[in-house]
Amino acid sequence: MRETTRRAGLWRPELGSVTVGILTALYLLVLTNWSFWSKGWRYLEGRPTTLAFIAIGLACLYIALCVAVSLKYVMKPLFIVLIMASAAGAWFMDRFGVIIDIEMIRNAAETNSAEAGHLVTPGFVLHMLAYGVLPSLLLVFVKVRHRNFLGKLRGNLAVIVPALVIALVAGLSHARVYAATVRAHHDWFETLNPFVPLVTAIQFAASQSGDVNVAVAPLGKDAHVTDAPLGARKPRLMIVVAGETARADDFSLGGYARETNPELAKKDILYFPDTTSCGTATAVSLPCMFSVYTRAEYSHRKGLSTENLLDVLSHAGVDVEWWDNNTGDKEIARRVTSRSLIKDGNPAYCAHGECRDQVLLDALDARIGSIDRDTVLVLHQIGSHGPAYYERYPEEFRRFVPDCRSAEFSDCTKEEIVNAYDNTIAYTDHILASVIDRLEKQENRLDVSMLYMSDHGESLGELGLYLHGAPYMIAPSQQTHVPFVLWLGRSEKAAYSAACLAGKVGEPQSHDNLFHTVLGMMRVETGVRDPALDIVSGCRLGATS
């Protein structure tokens, strides 16, 4: 290291490229990896020697990587990207306990500006200034001294080779302990910042190129309605409410101590208390819900390349419409009538690119009187989407107080966060009960029903986690245990055995059932409907399957 040099009146520190690489590596590893180190201490049950060897090994690997790319014209831009990405990743992992896997990145990529805006809080900005912008400016300010090619090659290898050897020795020295710990805690090394999130982002970007112009395979072209023709019966209207971020743990219908479902409790509904989601984020769960694939079979590419429930209903001659009050239909409604209520922008309920779910009720009021054919309306809620829970319900639904009035959770106590979230559930209860009210008024001319199922749940501080999107294999039940409500109008209810339906309530259900159950309720027969996954058709009086 030299003393500072003076150029054009400006004093700048001058460091060798290897030194800058080492300092950057240590900065990334030490100051932006709180989640990784805290989990390591917990998972290794306080074994300081083992953790010290991990620290030495990782430090050497980080140094080797950073020194390897310490090339003139390359290192500063690349290091700045690593620092900024690491700072952003650290904020979300440390603050919310999230894992930045490929599905989390997909969910972020498919969000809208309003939703993303709730995450850019003053705390996030200050964090990025302190841990991203400031060190990046210091890096820009430093004058980096580079050797000629042979000198750089010798100097870099003199650091890289010993570093890799030390990393190998450190890794092998406690290999059994490392392997056992990683097997037991898959989330540990997934928080290693910034390289694991960056590799995941690269994988996502690579997969996106393959999603362009995907050919969609037809599904259920043999679909047909088995009921009597219109004229000999009333048209059938089914409303499918795709919920957002509602966790079953906070539904009083399922035993939650707080009365979050007072209006639905007065309705003659079926509530399925043991229902699991296909994923932990909208980008996965929503298309999976409407696909023919079970959770075990589903993949993002399969979902894109195969027609879904809405297409099969259309093939059967059922009118299908998707009304969206969220971040979009995730390509589910590409081939049916689709409407964004956010773009419509009713000023009574909409502001800053988001709307409360009352807009769905207003749209239903305007449409329901003109329905004269078999119809399925899908209402996609904004529901309980966080972190700005307080934006999801009007003032009169502030039943649980004090409620968190900020998207920055550090401004609120856990009790305030839970209160705000429970208010969103109470408002969803009102929305669903109001949908039923409107359907009841149409029973003289329509056979009506409603099915509600949330796309995924939410963490509210359990195990230090907030929000959702954890990898499914390690996700807590609060993110995968979702509410499922079914309501049948008078005519529909009379067509089923009450005892049989009551028995279904006690059985485990999942998103796997949605596709087949909706087809069954709409009396649509097709070779792709699986009677074993159709919850209700087997309970129809006189049914054989």
Q: What does it look like?
A:
- With 545 residues, the protein is α/β, with parallel strands linked by helices.
- Helices cover 45% and strands 12% of the residues.
- It contains 20 helices and 19 strands.
- The strands form seven sheets. It has a seven-stranded mixed β-sheet, sandwiched between helices.
- Strand 1 (5-7) and strand 2 (10-12) form a beta hairpin.
- The radius of gyration is 27 Å and the shape is elongated.
- The termini are far apart.
- The model is unreliable at 1-5 (pLDDT under 50).
Strands of the largest sheet, in order across it? 7-17-14-6-13-9-10
Number of strands: 19
Distance between the termini: 80 Å
Radius of gyration: 27 Å
Report the biggest beta sheet as strand number plus sense, adding barrel if it closes: 7 strands, mixed
Structural class estimated from helices and strands: alpha/beta
The chain-level mean pLDDT equals: 92
SS strand fraction: 5-15%
Overall body shape: elongated
Number of continuous helical runs: 20
**Which spans of ≥5 residues are poorly predicted at pLDDT below 50?**
1-5
Helix content: 40-55%
Quick structural summary:
This protein has helices at 17-31, 34-43, 48-68, 75-96, 102-109, 113-119, 122-141, 149-173, 175-184, 195-211, 282-289, 300-305, 309-315, 341-344, 358-367, 414-440, 477-480, 490-494, 498-505, 512-521; strands spanning 5-7, 10-12, 14-16, 143-145, 224-225, 236-243, 269-271, 275-276, 319-324, 337-340, 350-351, 354-355, 375-380, 447-454, 459-460, 466-467, 484-488, 509-510, 524-525. With 545 residues, the chain is of the alpha/beta class. Mean pLDDT is 92; it is low at 1-5.
